[in-house]
Amino acid sequence: MINHLPILQVIVPLMAAPVAALVRKRGVAWFITVLATWASLAIAVLLLLDVRDGGTIRYALGGWAAPWGIEYRVDTVSAYVLVIVAGIGAIVTPYALLSVRREIGVKQAPLFYSALLLCLCGLLGITITGDVFNLFVFLEISSISAYALIAMGPDRRALHAAYKYLIMGSIGATFIVIGIGMMYMMTGTLNMADLARLLPSVGGRTVTVAFAFLAVGISLKLALFPLHQWLPDAYAYAPSTVTAFLASTATKVAFYVLLRVVFSVFGVVFAFETMSLHWALLPLAIVAVLFASLTAVYQGNVKRLLAYSSVAQIGYMILGVSLATVTGLTAGLLHLFNHAVIKGALFLAMGAVMYRVGSVRIEAMQGLAKRMPWTMAAFVAGGFSLIGVPLTVGFVSKWYLVLGAIENDMWLVAFFVLVGSLLAVAYIWKVAEAAYFKDYIGDLDVREAPLGLLVPMWALVVANFYFGVDANLTVGVARQAAELLLGVGP
Amino acid sequence: MWIDVPPFLPFFIGAVLVALAPRGWARNALLLGIPVLGGINLIGIQAGPHLEVELFQYTLTPFSVGTFSLLFGYLFHLAAFIGNLFALHLKRGDEDTLQQSAALVYAGSALGAVFAGDFITLFIFWELLAFSSVFLIWARRGERSVRAGFRYLVIHVLSGVLLLAGALIRFHQTGSITFEYVGLEGLAGWLLFISFGIKAAFPLLHNWLTDAYPEGTATGTVFLSAFTTKVAVFALAVAFPGTEALIYIGAAMTAFPIFYAVIENDLRRVLGYSMINQIGFMVTGIGIGTALSLNGAVAHAFNDVLFKGLLFMGMGAVLHQTGRMNGSDLGGLYKSMPFTAALTTVGAASISAFPLFSGFVSKSMVMAALLEEGYLAVWPVLLFASAGVFHHAGIKIPFFAFFAHDSGIRTKEPPKNMLLAMSLGAVLCIGIGTFPQFLYAILPFETGYWPYDVTHVLTQTQLLFFGALAFVGLQKTGIYPPELPSVNIDVEWSYRRLAPKAIRAIVPAISFVNRTVRSAAVSQFNAFQRVAPRIYGTRGMARQWPTGNMVIWVTVMLAAYLIFYFLK
To answer: Does A465 touch chain B (CB under 8 A)?
Structure first.
């Protein structure tokens, strides 16, 4: 049993998905989903503990040995991301019960849960696999279920948003598969470890082009500026649960794919010295931070505002990667976790507002702090973390990012990180000002959100502060993962 | 000493308890008990680090007793006690208890900052100071206070960000995060200097103070006046003692607010300007950097908290009773508020540095140190400033509030707790002024200085009496209506007997440059604000792009990568 943990990680949500669709009762479907996500979290935690003690776990699927069969590989990096994805899943699904009841029809609800489980399965699969084509398959599983999930949004524009995401996501996936195909053409293998061994000896223009295709394809999945345009609409019009789930996991997993391809497959020497990847990533990351933060300031829909803020946060993560040092990469990986916790809390707070008020526009939030004090307090607390106030997780990642930039003598980069924080103050303040300093004008029967929504929301808020004070665990794991990727660790 | 409790901890716990405590004696006991117990906790504490904490791979010392920590520690406990006593009557509604909790967090953060052993701890408390104190401004409610509070917050967060940046760079260069002497060298030094300078209200960085403090609540401003700027003075004393630039910055700080204070009508804003002026003396003292001058600087900080607190309490009591704060609306209140009038006058005498009042025993140290070190050009500026203080804070405040023409307002004395708090302040002002040896005993350095010698007393008394004479003369001849700023400039400079013509030329020139620079900056910002929504709003870059557009971008990116690699 314990030896089969890597495959169970993927199989549990995959098997639960059709069951949830078939039971046709939304309560039962929800219960199955909760069981499956918590089981996934338990498996992910066990894997992380295992990896931290004993090093990389290799699991040959169906007993076929590595270069021929598909191999699952769990090291500190993948186990870390698995825990984040499964953890967010486990927190979001209890929240879904009430939120889905409000936003999604009775008939669709079991299908919704089924799609959510498939999406989780896909994201976990991408993270755990050691085979590039298998990665592509899981990428498609997660993406297609994500399109379906977004299309179920209560707003009619959700359909259009999902359609656009479908087109763009497919193009991204195509680019990725083209890149994989070219690598296969040159080396004859799809196994990542094998590719890493063979690629340096083949070289040539095909590999260069493969690298470019992969870089662009992954950037699209990652919503790296200027390929982010599908993201704001998708996040703004998706059901609240889906927004919180995808914002905290989907782009994070795409970020993981970038790390895997760049560091584990092509290797740091090829990517940064031969291909000068940092000269492509660094300017885009900085522009993403500044542009997306400024745009967020001028949004009237708070979910859209947070979506633009996500684009900016992706910029921070990519900034960490483009430094290509242990500190920089640690900062990027830290922000992976920290941003999942921050945005999860913020989007769950907005979900609660949607549940009670039926709108997430700033005007609808005027004076809402009197009516929904816990929800708005959670939003402000999450906002503090997003800004990077000390004692929150946001501060920890900004700290390492600035430190990494200074280590490379990139003062201007450090400066832009701080400017980004100030812009975050501006857009969070907009919401806080409306909620706390305006008079309430909405319906009289608006009350505080029910506990079913508040508990998951506050669980994430508490995590924001807990990991902001006691950062040893996250920093330790992130640093170990960064050293592993750069190949300098023990 | 039982155990090493970090001084900020009782305040933070107390803030939570006060928020939860039922009304009445339990809360009162908390509000008054915490500063007392905290103060007792400090007695007999040893110098050096007391507590070390690991925060993501750095060793922090959130409780470390440095050269100046104890003096400021006692001072902040005292100020918190007086402030809490003054605000004890707040009972109505939930916002007012929020104010009491915020004040405790604020006082606790100030204590945390003065016992910080490293820059990260300092930064954390630096930001907490801003975030807790802004509630004391917002608690007054109303559009003006909210906006002023937000401007205040932005400036202080900026100061914190600069502090963090400076600390990071310093860590990168020296590998140390210890909060110690820095000096004005390199980028790190300058960033820290500017960060501290913002909080200390250096000239041109001072606007947040005179903008926000008059917008605070009647009780909140008493707290505001005690902590924020004094923490900055402490930080400067630790990191930049003997930095010569500070002497000139300090001299400018003492002199320029005088002009603004004289023409200002809002009496609490007048106090705000006089606060900058007093901090100027401290900054000068730090800049000189000798044992005597540093003693003078921190002793003056100690006294300033007490007498400025007393003045703000007096004005707070007036605001609380009448709801007005403009000099032109007030007057003749001594009939209905005789105790408040008398107590405020004690504060006014102290800030003017009358012998036997507290201002005298500390300000004279800075002045003496200036002469000892031979800064003969700066000395007259500070002398002029002393006269100016006497004029606007010593005479103008009590005169326009309690005497002058009768405004017809009939009211009562403020609540007992307010009177009690003011009395405590007044007793301390006179006590320290008369028996300075108790204050001198807790100063960081041993200098054997004694202020009551013939020269000092005589110079100061002369200065004060001629100042008073000028005021009376101008008042009698009718050229002192506060509405006419040009007359005020004459008044100021008659003390110095300088050619009024030159002054008339200089002052408008300064204010012209000041105004032009500011309005240029503001118009740039406004222009950006007009254009930005068009670029970044939902009709600009954030509009819903058609898919074709996005595909073009994908192609562009791929082409860019390929061309880049082809050219390499």
So the answer is: no
